[in-house]
Automatic annotation (TrEMBL):
Keywords: Glycosyltransferase, Transferase
Residues passing through the membrane, by range: none
GO MF term (any one): glycosyltransferase activity
Domain of life: Bacteria
Protein name: Glycosyltransferase
Domain Glycosyltransferase subfamily 4-like N-terminal: 14-159
InterPro entries on file: Glyco_trans_1 (IPR001296), Glyco_trans_4-like_N (IPR028098)
């Protein structure tokens, strides 16, 4: 079959992009014809797959906001979509659904994804867009059963279902959980709230030589450096910058705890990757997806409670091993082959 994934930007460092390329490569390895389309070019492209077996397209070299440029870009997109064989178009966000669904040929069955949580959608424009556009699609896909239920009830979606994010690979080794290192992974942007993780680390009582390593790049770097100085831990917070996807396994193997302090999350890949490596995690309880990972959960935004749980794992190696082993057992259900089976079953369901 043919599967087309369309993203606003397919090559930026981010969860939607990582999941899209992982699914695309996995489906291509199973013999499907797969296309990944970015509506606009990334300012700093990040390579997720070294030898992609799928086709990759970029519609516009820069963002388009309307008028003539938008019409030209839409014509290019419509022509490209008309050239691929019959199959399924996976539209990866509300903005992509709103722009692209009307351009699809009748040979492509539309499936709308949402990579956030219901709470996130409710607090911004996403929920209104999902209510307006997703009921017209063949399927609306969310990241957890909890979120699919909430969207079904509150957005009146008759077509909601749950499909989790996949793990790109299952690691051959687990962390020994002896390194004095807390790890945070993600874009250094406001919604990720790494300032909270820095504060929680400072308040956790983690003794030297424990350090907090932050993997990722972004506009918040200067502010986060200043925040670490104010919290008195600037010498123990290490900003690692972006790390190639192929090198991330080594980061988890060198960590003993992972922290996630985002404002919003759907089903964060960082928690799945940490769990697969047997690394325990502390996270805010912001979605059904987060709850499914086996992370230690604290109330959203409660930095003091986060610091307590972080300190508990730092102090207790046996507890780290217990939580990490439980999370690894849960992570087996997110192995790529299992998730691909669910996608193929979804395609078969849509076809019926």
């Amino acid at each position: 079959m043919t599967v087309v994934f369309t993203c606003l930007d397919a090559d930026t460092l981010g969860g939607i992009q990582q999941v899209t390329h992982t699914l695309a490569q996995g489906l291509a390895e199973r013999g499907h014809e797969v296309h990944v389309i970015g509506l606009q070019r990334a300012a700093t492209p990040f390579r997720y797959v070294d030898r992609p077996l799928y086709h990759h397209h970029v519609i516009s070299n820069r963002p388009v906001t309307g008028g003539l440029a938008r019409r030209r870009a839409d014509r290019r997109l419509k022509a490209l979509l008309g050239e691929v064989g019959p199959g399924y178009a996976v539209l990866t966000s509300p903005s992509v659904v709103a722009r692209t669904a009307r351009l699809l040929p009748g040979s492509l069955r539309p499936i709308g994804q949402y990579h956030g949580s219901y709470d996130h959608a409710r607090d911004c424009w996403h929920l209104a867009s999902i209510r307006r556009h997703y009921p017209e699609l063949d399927q609306a896909v969310f990241l957890s059963e909890d979120d699919a239920r909430l969207f079904s009830e509150h957005a009146l979606l008759p077509n909601a279902c749950a499909l989790p994010n996949p793990l790109a690979a299952w690691p051959g080794a687990m962390s020994v959980l002896e390194s004095p290192r807390v790890l945070g992974v993600g874009r250094l942007e406001g919604v990720k709230r790494f300032d909270r993780l820095i504060t929680a680390f400072a308040r956790s009582g983690a003794p030297e030589p424990w350090e907090l390593h932050l993997v990722g790049s972004g506009a918040e770097l200067p502010r986060l450096r200043a925040h670490a100085r104010r919290e008195g831990v600037d010498g123990r917070v290490v900003f690692r910058g972006a790390v190639p996807a192929a090198a991330m396994s080594a980061e988890y193997l060198a960590a003993s705890v992972v922290g996630l302090t985002s404002e919003y999350e759907g089903l964060p890949v960082v928690l799945l990757e940490a769990a697969a490596h047997g690394v325990p995690a502390v996270a805010f309880d912001v979605s059904g997806g987060v709850r499914s990972t086996g992370a230690v959960l604290v109330p959203p935004g409660d930095v003091d409670a986060f610091a307590v749980e972080l300190g508990r794992l730092v102090d207790d190696e046996e507890e780290r091993r217990r939580v990490g082993a439980d999370a690894r057992a849960r992570a087996e259900s997110f192995v790529l082959d299992h998730v691909l089976d669910k996608w193929e079953a979804l395609f078969a369901h849509v076809e019926r």
